Structure formats: C-alpha cells, structure tokens
Amino acid sequence: MVSADYVTSRGVQVLEKDEDLEKTVAEDDVVYLLLHSPSDTEILETIREASAPLLGSPQILASSSPALFSKYSVPLPSSSSSSYTLLALKDHDFTTPSSLFQSSSTTSSSTALQKWLLTHRLPTTLELTQDTFQGVMNAPQKPLVVIFAAPEGMKEKVMQRLRDVGSKWKVRTESKGEKEVGEVHGRQVVFAWMDSGRWGEWMKNMYGIVAPSEGESEVGKEAGLEDVKVVIADHSRLIYYDTDHLQNPIKATSSASIFAALDDAASGLSSYKHSE
C-alpha cells in the first residue's frame, strides 16, 4: 500500500520519508528504488514510460535522499547530473539489493532500461498459480524454476522451506561473485510451490511427478518435506531436471542437493528430460 507520505508522479511514487521505504519492502515481495539527482525531475517521466509494461507491479519508489545513496553505496550525483541508479529490493530484504541498474552512455537507452525492469520483477519465492504461471514460466529472462510439488495442506510448511532455501541461495550466489544476486551461470532462479492437488495431472504429464494430494489419501495430509517432489524446470526449452549430474534425486530437505542440481543444470552437466 502507498501511504499519504508518497507523492504520485504518473506511475512512480516519490518517497518523502526514508523510513517508509523499509515499510514498503516489508509489505511487497519486490520493490524498485530509483535514486536520482534532485534537479533531474525528467527521470520520473523516463522511468514511467519504460515501466509501462509492468502494469504497476513491482512498485517503483523514487528518492534523492543522501542517506539512501549512502546506505546502498551509490555515489551522489552532482546537482546538474542526469545519472541515476535503480535497485531491485526483493523478498522483504531491505539491506541487500538483488540487482542494480546504473545509467551510463551504454545503458541509458529505453530498451536497456525496460529490459532490466522486466527481468528483475519476479520475487525469489512464490506460488505458481493460474494467475502467476505465464509471468514466471514465460518470463523474458527464461528463469530456472525450482518446483516443489505438495498438497494445499502443506503450503505453509513448504513456503517457509522455500523462503529459507531462497535466502541461502542469495547468500551463496553473492559470495560466489555471480553478476547478479540469485543467478547461476547467468540464469535467474525462482523457487516455487505448486499445489499437487490442483495441478497434479498437469505435473504428471509435464514432469512425471506423482505427488500425494489431500483428496486422494491420508498420506497427502501427513506428508513431510521429505515426501515433496522437486524438479527444476527450464520452460523456455520445455525441459526439466529431477537429479544432479550424478543422478541423485533432488531433495526438498537438503539445500546442498538443490544447489548442486541447479549448478549442474545451469552449466549443462546434468541430463535433462523433455516436458510434455
């Protein structure tokens, strides 16, 4: 939600209080922050035009606060400068941006800006539903999607596990010096839960997953994370992976297992299977 402390500039919210940024990040899965020179008001229109395909999500907040420039180690532009920096703040993490876009002679084109805005709009963890499926699986950046298949009754447990894995993944990729936090060999990664009751037949046809559902047996109600089936989908190529390169199944309970399988899939070491 946008409070009265924001001033709307045709699609870009001008942040008047620094502390409201943290509140918004706590509420939204993804927030874009625009840091710019206070004299450069035209940038708001530039960002508004470039962000039109986002249809208002993620929210874009704009600020010229020296404190925020300092917090994110972004150099303060001169008063006459037209340079700016965009930060993607994901997964309610107010501290570490997952990506930065800094204007320059090579990146200031509207095409480059729009590509960045579209590429980083997805949170690290989410639920795949009828409403989110197309935006995730057919995203222009062609992400690798780690799918946990489990019944509705396990949603809270599975989503908590996915958030934990996603958080560890971001730390891991940052320490390994990936170009963007959360990527592996240039591929963005998304961790997702799918309801095995609602999507059961589709997942069986696409990925060979036969997961218990609540309506089918007591197993579905009592299943633990060790029973959750996991695949890595590369939907842009209609392929998927259910093991690492040593043919070890991907375990929902093991971050090491998931990360090894992601490394192997992104680097082309694992054997893949065709979807459909």
TrEMBL record:
Pfam families: Thioredoxin_6
Protein's recorded name: Uncharacterized protein
Source organism: Gymnopilus dilepis
